Here is the input.
Amino acid sequence: TYWVDCNSKWSSNWGMVGIVVWVPFLMGLFGTFMLRPMLLEVVGFPRNFLQYGLWLIIQAMFGNMGYCGKLGVICGFASIALGLVCIVAAAFGIKSHRME
Here is the structure.
């Protein structure tokens, strides 16, 4: 069968064909290093669940959806759902031990 890139039309609309390939990788790498902030010595991000929730929603829109076909869309919706949970947690003032 002939390989068809189902995301080429979507990604070419932005006019940045080269950088579009690296966006999900860099966002995933940054998100992975947020697990252990000392790996990059990232001090202060995320400070609260509101920042982390917004990061997850941005990651869903620009790092998940539009990539990997249906799996990217599924992961994007999961990131949006978790982002909304984090925003609700921020509204209730919940903090984790890393956010003290």
About this structure: Residues 14 and 97 are 40 Å apart (CA to CA). The mean pLDDT is 77.
